[in-house]
Amino acid sequence: MKILYQFLVKEIFSYFLISSGFFLFIFIMEKGLYLSKFLFKNIPISSFGYLLFLSLLPIIGLTIPMGFLMAVILSWARLVTSSERVAIESCGLSIRGLILVTLSFGLCLSIYTSFINQKVAPSSSFKFNLLYDHLIKKKPTLLIEEKAFVSLEKGDIYVERVDEENLYQIYLTEENSTIFAKRGRVVKGDDSLTLSLFDGVIHQQDKDLSSYHILRFSEHNLLLRKKEERSVLEKKIYYYTGDELWQEAKRHKGNPALLTEFHKREAISYASFFFALVGIGIGLRTKRREKVIGFSASCLIILLYYIIFIACEAFSKKTGVSGMVMWLPNLILVFIGGGMLLKVRKSKGKRKKVTL
Questions:
Q1: DSSP code, position 180
Q2: Which ranges of the chain would DSSP assign to H, the alpha helix?
Q3: What is the DSSP letter of 18?
Q4: Each residue's pLDDT expressed in tens, for the chain with a length of 356 residues
């Protein structure tokens, strides 16, 4: 029986590496495209690689439950479709032990994911923002992309061409005003970034729409970012580790967002264990000609899970209810997975009666 358990663990682990690698690759592509602008602006490749590494660490906590669900479905579906389950039961062995091994594997993976989400991810996110801010201060034009709309604190900006220091053909929209300028430059101060515009026009309309103004200027300065160093060093809620969140929640009992963030990380970490219940149920119900359904079912469950998860987070922060509501998606998985396993057990009992 020990050999059988080892075989199942290896089977799940191999599928887990492939499936989690697949999901991680998708996020790497998305993050890589976002950070690729650094490569084209003479940023050291080592800084780019470190930024990419820091940005991916928080994502690992999300991809692990996704990969494990797909791994459990595929491995248990293979156990059924290749008649290995029939062979096991014909030898007088129960699959109950295999179910417990799979759930134990999911629990161990959940504990590891909790460590990543509560300890590693907040620290890496904080370091990412420090390094990103350092690169912005060193090369302010990183804020601006060529031939693309970029959102700033006070509006959106479009620049036709960007060189090492200057911007050309600038289009900037603010509240009730639009600015056109032939040339501009991002100037960095001790605690701020300023956009200096030259040879342009400001189109401005009053809030009550009663009048419209056109102003021409030779130079116009706009504040882009102020005291960036202090604002980055100030810890935001998603930079706190799990222990820090718990301590802050005790001090500030009137702020439900702290406990919501804590339970959010824990709930998503232990999703691997609850996904295992559903994965086993789907795998046991897979027929020989339905192998493709395993991949489709896992993608659908992941999509629905995260939709409900995001809805619970928004509901908790908006209404101020207990952060325990973040465990609702996992509770739904318990009912679905438990119901599937009960149906499998009942159908097995009926087959035995018919045989007798």
A1: E
A2: 2-35, 45-81, 84-90, 96-115, 121-138, 228-233, 242-251, 256-269, 271-284, 291-319, 328-355
A3: H
A4: 677 778 888 888 998 999 888 888 888 887 766 676 666 666 777 777 888 888 888 888 889 998 998 888 888 888 777 666 666 666 666 678 888 889 999 999 999 999 999 999 998 988 888 887 777 777 766 667 777 777 776 678 888 888 767 888 888 887 778 888 888 887 776 667 778 888 889 888 777 767 788 888 888 887 776 544 444 334 578 788 888 888 887 787 767 788 888 889 999 999 999 999 888 888 777 665 555 666 777 788 888 999 999 998 888 878 877 778 899 999 999 998 888 888 766 665 555 444 43
Q: Closest Cα to residue 164, out of 132, 201, 138, 139? A: 139
Domain count, the chain: 2
Specify whether 247 is located in the same domain as 221: no
Contact 170, 200 (CB under 8 A): yes
Mapping DSSP to helix (H, G, I), strand (E, B) and coil, where does residue 178 land? strand
pTM as predicted: 0.74
Distance between CA 354 and CA 356 in Å, rounded?
A: 5
* The one-letter amino acid at 156: D
Which residues have C-beta within 8 Å of that of residue 86, sequence separation ≥ 6? none
Which of these three, 228, 248, 265, is where a domain ends? 228
User: Could you tell me how far CA 212 lies from the centroid of its own chain?
Assistant: 44
CB 345: neighbour CB atoms within 10 A?
Answer: 12
Q: Are 207 and 176 in contact (CB under 8 A)?
A: yes
Task: Please state the φ and ψ torsions of residue 241, each to the nearest 5 degrees.
Answer: -75, 170
Which residues are registered as beta bridge partners of 197? 184, 220
Rounded CA separation 96/337 (Å): 15
**Statement to judge: residues 94 and 14 lie in one domain:** yes
What are the φ/ψ torsions at residue 190 (nearest 5 degrees)?
-70, -35
Could you tell me the residue range of the domain that residue 155 belongs to?
144-228
